[in-house]
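Design request, tokens follow.
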């Protein structure tokens, strides 16, 4: 048994943070499912930008969509939905076997809508309907403006992956938005079992403070943030309010650890996987991290309900003059801006490919 299989058996879901046409058609994704216990997949604008920019595998489909009168954002979502639905079909056996707990894939709404909750909701409902797959999560940013869209989407029965969460406080706000949608469904006599995950970004914390803290604190902040969020997660789902929802048929919104590829070349390439091994959670990781953990990772003690030493570590960062609340807000803003940049670049790549194909 390799380390990914052991981690999965310990109760954590391993999702792949990548999607490309080649990954789907070459048999690689199936191998990850069969041999590395991968049980889901996430995507984002940066991933799709890299996939389409770096491959000719999409050129024929771009040509076909151009002939059908599609362009720009509409053309992109037509292509993205083909990849996402193919991935959803690959994970459908996992989804069926776990009765909808696992086997999910994620597609993000346009990051240009991060501050527009009304339009975010409409696009989320449209994309989910167009995909017509029960195991598709629509990604909505957990920004202040995104929280109302998350609640409304859950109430509308659209499974949601809340993205761009950076702090335990961000996580709690997103979890409560999701629960409000569930409670409204219960009050309306609707089935409250609408799946959701909350994606907490980990590695960017350590990048942000790398040059600002003593060497003894290097690569410790991301883990501490993840550990504190896990503690908050367990406290929430054990609370009377959540228990009432579960008794009515709801399921927990699972905490998902995202951005778990190690950025510091001096740190272990499996740092955030080994340090955030926790039951009833998800770790979505890049291909390199997945293969590294399968090859030489080790599964040590699982993360405890008390968050380990996170309180002590976070206090040490505050003593080093790191304003964690301000940094969380900055990281969320930067993350949203980064996705907008990738989105604009993606549409530029599609436009240039479209022009080249049209000229040919």
């Amino acid at each position: 048994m390799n380390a990914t299989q052991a981690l999965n058996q310990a109760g954590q879901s391993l999702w792949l943070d990548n999607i490309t046409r080649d990954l789907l058609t070459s048999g690689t994704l199936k191998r990850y499912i069969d041999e590395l216990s991968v049980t889901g997949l996430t995507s984002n604008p940066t991933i799709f930008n890299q996939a389409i920019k770096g491959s000719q595998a999409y050129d024929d489909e771009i040509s076909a969509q151009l002939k059908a009168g599609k362009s720009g954002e509409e053309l992109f979502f037509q292509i993205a939905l083909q990849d996402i639905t193919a991935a959803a079909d690959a994970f459908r056996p996992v989804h069926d076997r776990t009765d909808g707990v696992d086997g999910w894939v994620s597609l993000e709404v346009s990051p240009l809508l991060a501050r527009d909750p009304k339009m975010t909701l409409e696009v989320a409902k449209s994309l989910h309907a167009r995909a017509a797959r029960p195991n598709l999560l629509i990604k909505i940013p957990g920004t202040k403006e995104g929280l109302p869209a998350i609640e409304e989407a859950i109430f509308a029965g659209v499974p949601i992956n809340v993205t761009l969460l950076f702090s335990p406080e961000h996580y709690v706000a997103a979890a409560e938005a999701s629960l409000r949608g569930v409670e409204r469904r219960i009050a309306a006599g609707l089935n409250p079992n609408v799946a959701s995950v909350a994606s907490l970004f980990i590695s960017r914390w350590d990048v942000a403070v790398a040059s600002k803290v003593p060497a003894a604190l290097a690569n410790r902040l991301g883990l501490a943030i993840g550990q504190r969020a896990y503690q908050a997660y367990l406290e929430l789902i054990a609370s009377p309010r959540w228990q009432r929802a579960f008794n009515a048929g709801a399921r927990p919104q699972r905490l998902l650890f995202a951005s778990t590829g190690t950025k510091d070349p001096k740190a272990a390439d499996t740092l955030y996987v080994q340090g955030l091994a926790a039951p009833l959670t998800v770790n979505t990781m890049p291909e390199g991290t997945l293969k590294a953990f399968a090859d030489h990772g080790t599964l040590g003690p699982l993360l405890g309900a008390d968050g380990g030493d996170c309180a002590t570590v976070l206090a040490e960062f505050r003593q080093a003059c790191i304003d964690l609340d301000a940094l969380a807000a900055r990281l969320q803003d930067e993350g949203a801006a980064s996705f907008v940049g990738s989105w604009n670049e993606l549409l530029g790549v599609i436009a240039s490919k479209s022009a080249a194909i049209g000229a040919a």
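Comment from the thread starter after seeing the answer: thanks! Residues 324-359 form the longest helix (36 residues).
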